[in-house]
Amino acid sequence: MQLEFNSVSTETAQPETRFADVILPLPLPALFTYRVPADMNAEVQVGSRVIVQFGKKKVMTAVIAGLHTVPPKEYQAKYILELLDTEPTVTPIQLRLFGWMAEYYLCAVGDVMNAALPSGLKLSSESRIQFNPDFDIDLYYDTLEPDEKKLIDALQQADSLLYDEAADTAGVKNIYKLLKQLIGKRAIILFEQVKEKYKPKVIKKVRLYDEFFSSEARLNQLFTQLERSPKQVAMLMTYLQKVPVFNNPDLNAKGLEKNTILGEEKANRAVLSALVTKRVFEEFTEQISRFEDIAADENAEIILSEPQERVRRNITEIFESKDVALLHGITGSGKTEIYIQLIQQVLDGGSQVLFLLPEIALTTQIVSRLRKVFGSKMGVYHSRFSDNERVEVYRGVRNGTYNFVVGVRSAIFLPFDNLGLIIVDEEHETSYKQADPAPRYNARDMAVVLNSFHQGKLLLGSATPSIETYFHASSGRWGLAELSSRFGNAPLPDIKLVDLKAERNAKTMKNNFSSTLLDALEQNARDNKQSILFQNRRGYSPYMNCLDCGWIPKCINCDVSLTYHMAAHELRCHYCGHYEAPPSNCRACGRTRLKTVGFGTEKIEEELQLLMPDLRIQRMDLDSTRKKHSFQDIISDFETGKTDVLVGTQMVSKGLDFDNVTLVGIFDVDRMIHFPDFRSHERTFQLLTQVSGRAGRRKSQGRVLIQTGNIEHNLLKKVLNHDYAGLYEEEIAERKKFYYPPFSRLIRLSIKHEDEISCHSGANKLADKLKAQLTVRSVLGPETPLISRIRNLHLQEIMIKIDRESGGLKGAKQIIVSAIAALTAEKEFRALQVIPDVDPL
To answer: Which three-class secondary structure string do you get for 612-661?
Structure first.
């Protein structure tokens, strides 16, 4: 159902009773209506946050989506408890986007709101205890137990207490039993106190009272009054030296940071306290930004090469007639410099710019380049920021502090009101797609929608565009600009295939390293050059195996083997997070011949360190980058030459630019090629091309060594020849033949249940319902996925194909929603979960 958001003018007082339709942060199919208190009538606005009660006890933040005078027919509207915003936090365009996403991705608008608003803008509630004023304490006090009396005495002194405070006061461990007793005696009341999570960053400062620098005579008089306290005189002198109030009286209003005037001597706190008591100094706080104020580098002028300038002009010409364009530029061609020129042009015109990147890892390097040009005018937005930092960027966009933001997929939810340009770099990346929870959106696709709402321009950039994107661009629906030469005429890397079969037959393999790759690494080290090793699997080893009976340790919650992590010395599930110590003996046969099988980035790192102990090696994967600044530290060490070899997963393939990298080694490519998915060849080509593009980005030609057991594979030949056009022609023909995107739209239904039989029967019944209303050709399955159980829930999948040109997408979605509702309404399947994923990857 399309959610309609309407706005009613609030400029004049409304004599009627007013009602607000609000979005609650819950997976509910409809909006809820609340009554607006009369004293809020003049202030309440569409897009404002309000506190409402939902159910008997829940208190939560909601966003007003519409204002009107029609009471709900089905229930009596409760009053809004509190208005949080004097100015709306959510813009009309954001509300429109929320409704569009909820309808398209088959989720609740509350799910979208939850994803859109930083946690710091959603209120939290905490349970508190207060004394019941109706309790006759004179009559019943003596009937209370000793620990009950302690708590009642404390509550009479305090307005309210938290549960932890109450436990400490009463001296008990189990506070809940005590509270139950007092509630039964009607001596206390429990309530939820709602508080805002966001806290602005403040610094403590001091300043001189104005009367003391009204004249030198008054200041001299002050020194005379303080002459018996040399330390106080010294502190006053320190202030006057750092804040010359007689030269510029306005400086006194800004004051001096408290830590600055205190210095390092602990005794100075007493000195300052005395001066505050004597009303010489006044203490105050000042709200500041959490982000460092960085000025743009005046010398950071971006000068485009002739090919870059030609492409920039081409893009500008495309934007005269089309709103979306694809920049297909090979790796190292200098797409970022073109982006910067276009960004500057739009900012100079007074509009806003959003620059999307697929990974936090990318922001570290690109942000430092963009900071030199745009300074602190540029905001950065990603999930590694704290809640407070994200709120500051969100509000900075809302109030105009940031007209240009670099961010990952969640940045599409920022409150832009005049977005002139959106850039989606590395548009092919799967990181733009959110898997869980709802909304399961693709930020690249939502950029197209958001751009249409703002009537701006959208530029998609990639060296290896997704097949769907290139189809739209090459067919004329979108514009296409191509940059086919590397910046500075740097040559493309020389890619070679290393035959693992031949190396194994010759017995020249050392663990997982071919002699060819080891020789190249040694030569690179002698030449003082850097190398990148790519293995698209983290951990030490994919699984452990008993050599006697074949037993493999599996996750207790999921139908998947546990991955061995050597650094933590644990077996870990990458799906539910379960971990356990590695067994010392087989749990099936009891023997001790357990061996790790396969290899991940951790094992590559260890093996290389043993084979070449003089190399300085770092690893960049999900495990090594969990801390806030770990990406930045690893990349900084590599950039400054503190690291010789960087071992990593997909993170090392995404847009990183290192001057001194001349060798890239790639492991385990055959597993990627043969992964059972219609996009496996496309993704493998993209990964190999992108990671290969990290080599030789300046004058020296880079080398890429791909270890494979099948050097004759057709896809690898296309990688060798940098033949994206050949890949596209083959892939588009296959997809047309078998009716896959871009010729169809896909909706995947994941059916989950604790009971395997119920899961299978529910999935079969749902498939029958869908096949009866859609065509049998359109509904595939149900089928058991590769991993049939995750987090103790059994899984089945149904795939639905819908003709892109038929116009039947909306009708098909209505059929799907109705079929799911009918199935889960049956008593047998009420516990069944059916999760739709529109446009799955």
So the answer is: CCCCCEEEECCCCCCCCCHHHHHHHHHHCCCCCEEEECHHHHCCCCCCCE
Give, as one character, the DSSP assignment of residue 123.
-
- State the number of CA atoms in the 13 A half-sphere of 306 facing the CB: 1
Q: E strand or H helix at 35, and its extent?
A: strand 32-35
Joined tokens for residue 572: 């870990």
Between CA 37 and CA 684 the distance in angstroms is 59
Question: How far apart are alpha carbons 448 and 432 in whole angstroms?
Answer: 13
Tokens of 825: 């309404």
Burial degree of 232 (CB within 10 A; 0-12, 13-18, 19+): buried
Instruction: Extract the tokens encoding 629.
Output: 């600044």
Q: Which of 458, 463, 462 is nearest to 445 (CA)?
A: 458
Contact residues for 562 (Cβ-Cβ < 8 A; gap 6+): 543, 544, 553, 554, 555, 571, 572, 573, 578, 579, 580
DSSP, collapsed to helix, strand or coil, labels residue 97 as: helix
Spatial CA neighbour of 665 closest among 595, 597, 611: 611
Q: Which of 190-199, 429-438, 633-642 has the highest mean pLDDT?
A: 429-438
Q: What is the pLDDT of residues 566-610, one digit of tens each?
A: 888 899 998 888 999 999 999 999 999 999 888 889 999 999 999
Please say whether the dihedral angle defined by the alpha carbons of residues 231, 232, 234 and 235, taken in this order, is positive or negative. positive
Pairing between strand 703-708 and 563-565?
A: unpaired
Distance from C-alpha of 777 to C-alpha of 282, rounded to nearest angstrom: 78
CB-based contacts of 590: which residues, under 8 Å, 6+ apart?
Answer: none
Nearest to 229 by CA among 282, 284, 267, 283: 267
How much helix, strand and coil, in percent to the nearest 5, is found in the chain?
A: 40, 25, 40
CA angle (835, 836, 840) in 5-degree steps: 120
350: left (phi over 0), alpha (psi -120 to 50) or beta: left
CA distances from 834 to 289, 303, 748, 830, 831 (A): 44, 53, 10, 11, 10
Name residue, tokens 């099948």.
Answer: 710
434-439 long-range Cβ contacts below 8 angstroms, 24+ apart: 434/115, 434/409, 437/111, 438/27, 438/105, 438/107, 438/108, 438/111, 438/835, 439/101, 439/102, 439/105, 439/107, 439/111, 439/112, 439/115
Distance CA 537, CA 622 (A): 10
| Beta bridge partner(s), residue 799 | 748, 780
Q: How far apart are CA 609 and CA 643, in angstroms?
A: 13
- Give φ, ψ of 76 to 5 degrees: -85, 125
Alpha carbons 841 and 825: distance in angstroms, whole number = 30
- Model pLDDT for residues 494-528, shown as the tens digit of each residue: 899 999 999 999 999 999 999 999 999 999 999 99
Nearest to 782 by CA among 766, 794, 793, 801: 766
Which tokens is 20 given?
Answer: 């607000």
Helices (H), 700-750: 714-720, 724-738
The per-residue pLDDT of the chain, averaged, comes to 88
**Structure tokens belonging to residue 602:** 């951790």
Report the pLDDT averaged over residues 160-171: 83
Cα 316 to its chain centre, rounded Å, is 31
Q: Hey, is 404 helix, strand or coil?
A: strand
Cα dihedral 450, 453, 459, 461, rounded to 10, equals 20
Minimal CA–CA distance to 28: which of 65, 79, 81? 65
User: Residue 10: its pLDDT value, please?
Assistant: 46
Q: Which residues pair with 194 in a beta bridge?
A: 125
Check: pTM over 0.90? Answer yes or no. no
What is the model's pLDDT at position 35?
Answer: 95
Mean of pLDDT values over 140-145: 85
